[in-house]
Every structure is written in C-alpha cells, then in structure tokens.
Design a protein that fits this description.
Largest sheet: 6 strands, parallel
Order of helices and strands: EHHEHEHEHHEHEEHEHHEHEHEHHH
Strand order of the largest sheet: 2-1-3-4-5-6
CATH class of the largest domain: Alpha Beta
Number of domains: 3
CATH superfamily of the largest domain: Glycogen Phosphorylase B
Number of helices: 15
CATH topology of the largest domain: Rossmann fold
Shape: globular
Helix content: 40-55%
Length: about 375
C-alpha cells in the first residue's frame, strides 16, 4: 500500500435493537471509535454486531452475518472489534482472522470482577469471560480501558496492549453551557443497584443530589426512529435473497445520525444540573459519563478509584475534576456544598474540565494516538505514562 493511501479498516461495534439498551452503550464506544479513525483519514466499513447475551434467533437478522459474503476477497489494513459482549460466528471469526494483518480488540470494561460482583452476577460473568477469551483469539492488538488489564496483557506478551480511557468526545460536541443550570442540585445518571441506592437515600445528600427520571432524547422521536430502523433492517435481512453492501451503508448512515442526535440531547440533559456526580461502581475504569460530563462544562465529581494511578492522574484535581472518598457520602456532600456556596469556583472547574476534554480527550486525539501506537509501538497523548 502506498503511504499516501488511506487505511482501509472494518469496525465491528456492539449495537442493540432497542433504544433503552442502546442508550446505555456510551457514544465513544458505539460510534466514537469510527469517528476517531475517520478523523485520521481512514476509510471505515462500519458493521453493527449484536450481543452474545441476546436471543440466539436475532443472529439471523444481524448485518455481521453477511460480512464474509459482502466483503469476500477484499483485504483490509486493520479490523477493529468489540471484544467482551459481541457475538461473532465461527465463519465470521475465520474471515476476520484472514482479512487484515492488524486486528484490534477493543475492551470497553474491566476484565476483573470483585468477589461481590462475581457472586451476584456469576452466570453473566462466566459467559462474558468465555466470550472475551474466544474473541481474543482473533486479535493481534488490544486497547483496553482498565490500566491493570493492559499491564496483564503486556506482561503475558501474547498481544500488544494500549491503555486508553474511554472518555474521548467528538470536538463538535464539546460546547460551553448555553444557559444556567435548571436545577441547583447535582445530577446522577446511571444504574441504581443496591450500593448506589444507599448513596441516593443518604441523609447528607438530600437536596444536593438527584437522579433524573429520563434524559431529553426520550422526549423526542429518536428512540422510536432508532428502533424502527432496526425493525426495517431485520425485515430486509430476513426477506432479501441478496443482501447488498450499499444497503448496509445506508443503514449505518441513518443509525449513526440517530446516535449522534441522541448523544447531543443526552449532553444537553447533563447541562441541566449544577454539577454531575459519578457514584461508586464495581468496575475500576473511567466510565464514559465522566468525559461526557466534563465536555458540557459542568463540574464533574467522582470517587477515587483504588489501584488505578494512571486513571487518577488523567485530570487535575480541583481545576478540572473533583474527587470524594468512595466509602464516605459525607465527603461527597462536602464537595457539593462547596460548589453550591462558591458558584464562581464551580464555573471555573466546569470550564477547566471542558478545556481539558477539548485539548486532550477528543475522538481525533484518540484516533491519532491509537494509529500511531499500532504503527510504531510508541504511546503518545492521553495514553502515555509520561
């Protein structure tokens, strides 16, 4: 290939047929990786893949099933694929392994489970672990969100592994608040399992932190249009005697447009609070919610994760992000009280986080960092430990 030729990349992304599930799969992982690769001039063939946890019968109506036939005989420079949750048939795995010399597994969550998490989610955890191990058999490179997983991969030596926090945002989505917050309270968006319920109900946080019922995209037609698109796609895939690559491209174009509209509405939802809070979670990675919150210019408040020094050092405390103790609701309440009492400082922290995202954590920077690492083995940008 001539060095001036664009990279030809196939990107397999996990996707869902219903908006409720799809909306929980963060934009950077769902679409942002393709945005990142395209920002570097790559030609990306985008293929949605269904979850291994979903009904077996849905696999017949998935676009990925047709890729070996649609792209038969074609060669690519790289193939990127979601590793942990996505289902790849034996035929598709064989095609992926032969179609490109570089095959990048993107691991969007920690592969480590706490004893408590394993106990409560044992069946799902074992299935996830087995699926990840099966899919990794295709990989030559790994990009993972848990810095300790990357250490493990590099120590084992089977794959080249890069750490990168999954908080990269398209530059055109990083905008200062267009209006003051509509609520004086901080907002938490996320799954409310038992531990988090205790935080939301803690006396010291009453009047300071709330969990909204729904984000703004639910008040539009985006969810219905997204689900209708998938129903139309399934009908086509099940009834057509000859599935075409052009049909896939049209489907993906509309899917990406709806995802982007939903994402912009989601970001507007985050701007409604005076601050944004990330409550403790079992998985020791930086969730997409942190990058999203910082991108909209509101103060981002999160817990200090143990044993993740690179993640901790990613943002500057008190000027870009705020921390509280993971086992102490009172420490979170103290931060939220200070933000309420000092609105100028709150605005400065919010703007500091937004500027940090714009300068260091965009899709373009991620694309440049990842492709440079694949090409040279050198870590630059936010992934660098230097």
């Amino acid at each position: 290939m001539n060095s001036a030729d664009p990279l030809k990349i196939v990107f397999f992304t996990l996707e869902f047929r219903d908006w409720n599930s799809a909306s929980h799969w963060a934009y950077p992982q769902a679409i942002g990786i393709a945005d990142a690769l395209e920002s570097q001039g790559a030609e990306v063939t985008f293929v949605p893949v269904f979850s291994v946890h979903g009904p077996v019968e849905t696999r017949a109506s998935c676009w990925s099933r047709h890729i070996p036939a649609l792209l038969k005989g074609q060669k690519f420079d790289q193939i990127w694929f979601e590793d942990v949750h996505s289902y790849y048939s034996d035929e598709l795995m064989e095609w992926i392994s032969a179609a490109a010399p570089v095959r990048v597994a993107f691991i969007c969550e920690s592969l480590k489970l706490s004893p408590a998490e394993f106990e409560t989610r044992r069946e799902g955890a074992l299935r996830r672990e087995a699926n990840s191990r099966r899919n990794l058999s295709m990989a030559t490179h790994v990009i993972a969100l848990d810095e300790t997983d990357v250490e493990d991969f590099n120590r084992a030596g089977k794959f080249k592994a890069l750490w990168y926090a999954g908080n990269f945002i398209p530059p055109d989505c990083i905008a200062p608040p267009s209006r003051p917050p509509t609520s004086a309270t901080a907002l938490f968006y996320g799954t409310v399992y038992e531990e988090r319920r205790g935080w939301l109900e803690h006396p010291s946080l009453q009047g300071l932190l709330v969990r909204p019922q729904a984000s703004l995209e639910w008040k539009t037609t985006v969810p219905q249009r997204f689900e209708q698109l998938f129903r139309d796609g399934e009908r086509y895939l099940l009834s057509s005697s000859s599935v075409s690559l052009e049909a896939l491209r049209l489907f993906v174009t509309e899917m990406r447009a709806l995802r982007k509209k939903g994402f912009l509405l989601w970001l507007r939802s985050l701007q409604e609070g005076s601050a944004l809070v990330n409550l403790p979670q079992p998985s020791l990675i930086i969730p997409g919610r942190i990058g999203e919150g910082m991108a909209v210019g509101r103060p981002m408040v999160t817990w200090e994760m143990p044993g993740r020094p690179r993640s901790r050092a990613l943002f500057k405390e008190d000027s870009e992000i705020l921390f509280y103790q993971a086992n102490d609701p009172e420490s979170l309440a103290a931060v939220l009280h200070r933000l309420r009492q000092d609105p100028e400082w709150a605005d400065a922290v919010g703007e500091g986080g937004r500027q940090a995202t714009l300068k260091r954590h965009t899709t373009g920077i991620f694309g440049e960092t990842a492709l440079h690492w694949i090409r040279t083995g050198e870590e630059i940008g936010a992934s660098s430990s230097g």
